[in-house]
Amino acid sequence: MPANAITTQSSDASGVSKLKQVFSKVPEVTLFFWIIKVLCTTVGETAADFLNVNLNLGLTITSIIMGVLFIASLVWQFKTKKYTPLVYWLTVALISVFGTLVTDNLSDNLHVPLEYSTVLFTILLAITFAVWYAKEKTLSIHSIFTPRREAFYWLAILFTFALGTAAGDLMAEALGLGYLVTGLIVAGTIAAFAVGWRAGLNSVIAFWFIYIMTRPLGASLGDLLSQSSAHGGLGLGPTNTSIIFVAGIILTVAFLAFTHKDVMRDPVAEERVDDREAKREFWQLPVVIVLLLTLSIGGYYFRHQQLLNAAASATNTSTSAGVQAGPLGDLSSFKTIAQAILTSVQAGDWSGANSHVNDLEYAWDNSQAQLKPMNGAAWTHIDGALDKVFREVRAVSPNQQSAEAALQSLLSILNNP
C-alpha cells in the first residue's frame, strides 16, 4: 500500500464489501514542517506589503487579490487526492498572507484595537476546535483525510494566522516591546511548549499553540533581517530577505517532494495514539489555558499601565513647563523627517527619500506605544497619512506630484493633529 494511504471498508447498494484507499492530505510534523512554516510566514507578509505599498494598490485591493489567490489554491488543495508538498505549502503561504490581511483590515480600515482582534480570533479559534471535535470526535492532526476534517483544519489555520498577527502586533507595536523582544518572548514560549511536549504534554495541544506562535516569530525574524543596522537589524532589506526565504522554501519543498520525509507512514495508528492521549491527558488543556491567560492578561495590564503612566507623565511635564503641546505632545522630530523626505522628493532623490521614509516608519512604530494612549483618534489620523506617504514614496514607479501632495498633507496634520 502506498505511504500515507488509509484503507477503509464499505458496502455498495447490493451489500458487497469494498475496500477504498483514502490518503492523508497533510504532512507529518517534522523539523522541515516548522522551517517552511516560519519561512512562509515571513514571505507572506513581505508579499502583502509589496502589493499594498510598492505597487500602491492599497490594503483593500491587495486583500481582494490575495483572497482570490488563496481560494484558488485552497480549491486545488481540496481536489488533490493526497498530500502534495507544492499544493499544500502554496496554500499555507497564501493563507498566511490572507490571515495577516484580515487582521490588518480590522486594524487599519475599521480601526479595531489589536486587543479586540486578539480576543475575537481566540474565540473564533476555540469555536472551530469545539465544533470540529463535536462533529469528528477527534482533533488529531494525523486524521485529515475527509473533506469535512480538511475544512476544519484549514479554518483553524486561517484563525491561527489572524490570531498570531494580532497578538504579535499587539506585543511589538501597541505595547511597544519591539519585534526583537517580541521574537525572544515568542521563541521562549515555543521552546517551553516543545520541552513540555517531550515531557508529556499532549501533542495536539503543543502543535496548535506552537503553530500560533510561529506567526509572530516569523515576523520578528523577517524584521531582524530586513531592518537597517541603524535600526537594530542586519540590513538585508525586504527584497533580499524575501529572496533568501523564497529560495529556502523552494529548496526545502523540493527536497521533501523527492525524499517523502514528511509523508505519514501510518496515519490511522497515529490518530489512535492522539485520541488515547487526548482522553488520558484531557486535564492538561484547561491547565495550559489558565496558565497562558494568567500570564498574558497579567503581562498585558502591567505593560499597559506602564504606558499610561508614561503618557500621563509626559503630559504633566509639558503642562508644568508651560508648553502648549498638541494631543500627542511634541511631534517636531517627525516633522523634521517628513520635511527631509519632501526635500528629497522635490529634488528627485528617490533613494534619499526612501532612506528617510525608513527612518520615519521606524520612529513612528517605536513611538506608537507612547503616543496612542495619549489620544487614539489623533494617532490614527496621523497613521493613515503616514501610510499614504509610504505607498507613494516606496512605489515601484513613484509619482512626484502625488508624493509631494501626500507629504504636504502629512505635515499639515502633524502641525494640527
Sheet-strand content, in percent, reads under 5%
Residue share in helices? over 70%
| Structural class label | mainly alpha
- Described by the principal axes of the CA atoms, the overall outline is globular
Task: Report the major sheet.
Answer: 2 strands, antiparallel
Order of secondary-structure elements:
EEHHHHHHHHHHHHHH
Q: State the low-pLDDT regions, or none.
A: 6-21
Report the span from N to C terminus. 68 Å
The strands making up the biggest β-sheet line up spatially as 1-2
Averaging pLDDT over every residue, what do you get?
85
Number of discrete helical segments: 14
- What would you report as the Rg, rounded to the nearest angstrom? 24 Å
Q: What is the total number of structural domains?
A: 2
Could you tell me the number of beta strands? Answer: 2
Structural overview:
The protein is mainly α. It folds into two domains: 27-282, no CATH class; 332-415, no CATH class. It has 14 helices and two strands; from the N terminus they run ββαααααααααααααα. A two-stranded antiparallel ribbon has the order 1-2. A hairpin with a 5-residue loop joins β1 and β2. α11 (332-346) packs antiparallel against α12. It is globular.
